[in-house]
Every structure is written in structure tokens, then in C-alpha cells.
Task: structure prediction
Amino acid sequence: MAKYIFITGGVVSSLGKGLTSASLGRLLIGRGLNIRMLKMDPYLNVDPGTMSPYQHGEVYVTDDGAETDLDLGHYERFTGQPTSKKSNFTAGRIYWEVLRKERHGDYLGGTIQMIPHITDEIKLHIRALDEKGVDVILCEVGGTVGDIEGLTFLEAIRQIGLEDGRDNVMYIHLTYVPFIKAAGEVKTKPSQQSVAKLREIGIAPDVLICRSEVQLSDDVRKKLSLFCNVPFNAVIEEQDVQHTIYELPLVLSEQGLDELIMVHFRLARPPAKLQAWRKLVDTIVHPEGTVRIAVVGKYSELQDAYKSIFEAIHHGGLAHRHRVEIVKLAAEELESARGLDTLATVGGILVPGGFGERGIEGKIAAIKFCRENGIPFFGICLGLQMAVIEFARHVCGLEGAHTTEVNPQAPHPVVCLMAEQEQVQDLGATMRLGAWPCNLRLGSRAAEAYGGSACISERHRHRYEVNNRYRAQLEARGLVPSGISPDGKLVEIVELQKHPWFLGCQFHPEFKSQPLAPHPLFQAFVGAAIHRQYPLIAES
Ligand code: GLN
Result:
């Protein structure tokens, strides 16, 4: 039977619960344990697939095609392990299941209630991760203690403590200890109240992780220990990291967090193996150079909308021991020629995925600029589609070429819906999702980047595809379809051969990039950007 660690958050949101959980995952793997990770989201959407990036940030996609919370991206990047459909569920999914069972008559005439029906369903979903050979399951509860919608989730994890015994279950509470400038001191009261709220529900945390902008004195930690009823050595400090989020596992391990877990679960394991991780942090802290890369997206102001893209770009830099300075540009602003000036100063330009019309023409202008000026270009999903449109319009002379997503009446629909998508009415979970195989053309840049592999597997999340009616015409003018689905029907990668580096992919490679294993395409793209940037620096 696996042991459970439940991670809750208090006082405010955005404390970095996902990163903390992911770091813990890394430490337990370093201890040689077999782990699983889970994110529970108490909101009512069935999954985040239909939520706006303003509400939710990035939608992360797993190999088995689940549209999930972006914290799963942190989990995969920190642990190096794939997540799955089972690794994220929402209150909406739980209610949906319970109501489906009720309609089916599964409850035999009973009155359906929050306790036990909803809580039982939550526990069922949690325990689904307890597969053979799993030692520890790390479960993060989304939201903040005190949220009404989170109550059934807290009740469910309390019940697991009762069912499995406190030796097999651990509760970790992440809280905020603010520094009040006017008083010149940190305040423990919000943490005390948040823990009091948890204890009211029947959960007594075993560990308190304190997010703080300043160092906590022993006196403050003693106070937190006393008022929150947590042993002094289990009051862990989590200050903002200095250089990179990847420092976090090291910061937590230095304070003995993984040791505390071993003691609680009576697991005898040697100290966590973290050599590779230390080396990674060292490379980030001491880069050999810096390269600038522009990301031309719809939401330049949203930090979370392109989370995995930004991370994967940094990983690409790490592969060359370079720091990447990411220049975030709003595609809309590039619709005037002025915006293009910035583009001339960067090593490479990436156009990420997206939906809808806003900023489309700016993206196309940026791609044209890259194609004509030999600037390394990497287009992802919508980025590939825009590259195809740009090429069709300006090289093949197909005036009005477009995607039917934006112009259903386009005279040249070079990007369009596949037949199986045309009947789809619901928006949720109906895109082409998850891992799909792709064959690479021998001798292409794509094949070179992937180290000569003939077949790869990458994750998708889109409805529209390159229109096969135009494939030959595009190729005849130099846009090479270098990645194709095994049945030959879908264009997955396009590239230009007479260009330093110009590649678009229909899938989302960013989801599979990890700091210890940078994605081959990001590695190749950032490499090309570094190559371009040095003459630029010499010129200025
Ligand atoms: N909107 C495009 C489609 O649905 C691209 C999606 C994406 O970039 N993820 O095909």
C-alpha cells in the first residue's frame, strides 16, 4: 500500500505549491522511491481545456491526451516522469461522475450527499494512483484552505488519514509569512489562522513550509512551531530562490525535508542523490553566454500562458550552457512595421500555439521577417499554421491564403479542419489530443535535431491541420513537409532548407522538454539563435 503526502496551501494563492510539490517529488525520486503525483482542482470545470489563459494559464497535455493543470508540467520537469489522465482531476469531474452514477441507479435509492458520495468519489480518484510498486503518492490540493469549494477535498484527505493511519499519511501545509515593512518584522498570524482552519476540519499538519521574502529567525520559527502545533524542525523556510526555480529541491533538502518524510514513514533510505540536479543548477548560475529569443504570442503580459514554452526555451539554452533572455512581444503590436525593429536584434523568434484571430497578422509579419532575413524561426502548432499561410501568400502567390479557423471563406484554405473534426459540436476534450507518432524525412533538419530518429512521438492539442490539397504546391516552392503521420495523411513538421533554421511543428514539443533532458527541437533552435547572435554582438 502506498503512502500519501497531501500538500495544502494557506493565506494566499500563487505561493508556488506546484513547484514545491514537484521539488518534493524530485527529492523522493532521489531517495530511490517510486512515486506518483496528483493535482486536485476544486473548481467546477470538468477540466481546464476550455478555460481562458487569463483564468488558468497554460493547459498542459499528457501523453494519454488529458488537458490538465499546468502544475503537471512542473511535475514532469522536476521528476522526469510522465503524468497521465489520472494525475489531475477537478470537482467538476467528480460531480459529473457522481451524477452519472446516480442517473444509472448505482446508489440504489440512497440520498446523494457531499459526505460520503462526493468524498468517496474523490478518494476513489486519489487511490487510483496506488498501483503496484508505488511507494509514495504526492497529492496537491489546489486553492487555499478556507475556500468553500475545497472543503470536500480536505474532508476526503482527512478521511484517508483515518483509514490508512497517521504513520502512512503526511500533511504538509504551505503558508505565507509576510514581512511588514512599516513594522520592520515578519508576521506569523496569517499562518496561525490558516492552520487553525485546517485543524477545525480535523487535519493537523506535520510540516509547515513557510514562503517568505526574508529569512526567518529561530524565534519566528519557534513561534510558528508553538502556535501551529508543528515540531520546530518541521518548520521549513522557503524564501524566493535566487537564480532559478530549479534550486528549490536543494533548498528544501538542505533543511531536511526529505529526511523528515523518511522518519515519518519509517523508510530507511540513503540521502537523496542530487548530483545531476546540482550540476544543472550550477550551469544555470554560471552560463557561458546569453542569447535573446523573442516569443511572439497573443498574451505577452501573461506569465503563465506559455509556461512550458518558456521553460523549454531555457532548457534549450542549457544544452549550450547559455542563459536565454526571453523577449515577450504582443503579436498585435507587430501589425505595425515599428514592432519589427525589435525582431532584428534577437537571435531567434518563436511563435507559440494559440486560438482565435487576435494578433494573427502580427504573427504572420514576424514569420515573413524571419524567412526573408535568415532569422532562426520556430513555430509551434498555430505557429506552424501561420508559417504555412505566410509561405502560401508570399512565396506561392496564393492571395488570401488563410486558416478556416479565422476565415471560413478563405479562397485558399491552406489550413483547415479534417473531416472527423467537422462534425464535432462540443468544445471540451474534442481536439486532436495527446501523443501521436510522426515519421521524419531522412536528411531533414528535423531528423538531424532528433539525432537521426526515423519515428518520434509528440503531444498534440489542436483542431486544424495543413490542407493536403496544397501540400505539393508548398513543397515545390521549398516548404518541406519533413514530419508526416505514419498514414501519410497529416503534415506534422514543415521546414525551409535554404534558411539557417526555419521549422514549424504541429505538435507541442514544449510539453516534453525537461531541464535534465532538453527537447531536441528547442536545443537545435536555441543553438541556431546563438549562432546568429554572435555576429550581431560583434556588429554592435
Ligand atoms: N487554433 C489552432 C488549432 O486549433 C492551433 C491550436 C494550438 O496552437 N494549440 O488547430
